[in-house]
Amino acid sequence: MGQRVVIGLSGGVDSSVAAWLLKEQGYDVVALFMINWHDTEGTLSGDCPWYDDRMFAELVAKRLDIPFHVVDLSEEYRRRVVDYMFGEYARGRTPNPDVLCNREIKFDLFMDEAFRLGADLVATGHYCRKESAAVEGRTVCRLLAGSDPGKDQSYFLCQLSQKQLSRAIFPIGDMLKSQVRLIAAEQQLATAKRKDSQGICFVGKVDLPLFLQQKLEVIPGEIIEIAARWPGYARREGLPPDEELRSWVEPCRYTPADGEVVGHHNGAHFRTIGQRKGLGVGGRREPLFVIATDTETNTVYVGQGDNHPGLMRKGLMIKREEIHWVRPDKAMTPDEERRYLVRIRYRQPLQQARLTMREEGLYVIFDREQRGITAGQFAAWYDGEELLGSGVIDR
Predict the structure, then answer these.
(1) Residue 54 belongs to domain with CATH number
(2) Are residues 100 and 177 in the same domain?
(3) Confidence band for 46, pLDDT divided at 50, 70 and 90
(4) 3-state helix, strand and coil shares in percent for the chain, rounded to the nearest 5
(5) What amino acid positions are annotated as catalytic residues?
(6) Are 37 and 100 members of one domain?
(7) pLDDT at position 310
(8) 202 and 102 in one domain?
(9) The whole model's pTM is what?
């Protein structure tokens, strides 16, 4: 019998085919299903709660004739992921719970449970790849984009460490989604035609304001429209280099006097940059988008059109303590500059950017203005197809 691989069998087609591939390759495969969320408040009906996922996962395990185990990690998931999410929204930031789930749950607590089951390696159904390289006499793990450009999920793993990567394996990383579906159908796996999951990792598709109201208070406030010709959008020229660097990443600061009241909302902490739906304000030539929120004054600022100047920014900044290097040997030092490819959200095409390290943190200045840079989200930078590091956007 080969090495023991414990796979996170989620009840989806990707992990199902990953399990089949591992067995075909001669591994001793064990399935482990995670229960991470029990509540249904705020979730939308018909989004297959965890007990449906478990049923599908168990059917696949039986079909493949591999042991099936279940672990309940819901208490830690609430503490490490959901409570963090509530806290970030309360501060007027927009977190990415899927990235946190991978760092804190799938590749931490889940790994611990897998090792208790005798795992040598832990597998998931992510569309990404891992390679090993020799660097100065030691082995380094390289996290690479998945081969399917439409499904690359390396961004979701941007906070993993070398230790976590060293014990991980991604069986479908070099496959296309269409190939995965075809194998699932050929092997008559129960998940072959099952739709991909959506929404918050392990919680599902939610009515976000309703979900957040479990802990965040409803506070009525004003929606204020800012005109595209607002004078604050004019940039000053001839700034010293460091001042110019900081000016690129500073978001616009509005006051109610800068625009006109066009509607009301139930809490600025329920809104996020770039949001269009749910504002309840009509009668405009172009749709309104959220361009800023102020949780201190409980004000939501909006602008007309998806290219409104308030949505566009040239750069972002990550505080020093929030910078994470998947490849620590590639870490930048203060005053160092490099050019990398960067993305600020899943599935966003990689963007050319200049990274500049300062004592206070990392400045990312894009060649082209970016839409909807949002505090609390993760920026990840790549050297070609290799993800080198990431960090939480501060501003």
Answers:
(1) 3.40.50.620
(2) yes
(3) very low
(4) 30, 30, 40
(5) 101, 201
(6) yes
(7) 95
(8) yes
(9) 0.90
DSSP string, 87-108: HHHHTT----HHHHHIIIIIII
| Token representation of residue 318 | 């990550």
343 pLDDT more than 70: yes
Task: Report the share of the chain in percent with pLDDT over 70.
Answer: 93
Average pLDDT for the chain: 91
CB 82 within 8 A of CB 97: yes
| Shared domain check, 376 and 289 | no
Amino acid at 45: S
Cβ–Cβ < 8 Å for 124, 82: no
Residue identified by tokens 């909006």 is 302
pLDDT tops 90 at residue 140? yes
Q: Give the Cα separation of 372 and 351 in Å (integer).
A: 14
CA–CA distance, 282 with 278 (Å, rounded to integer): 11
Residue 161: both structure tokens together:
């460490």
What string of DSSP letters covers 333-345?
Answer: -TT-EEEEEEESS
DSSP class of residue 286?
S
42, pLDDT greater than 50: no
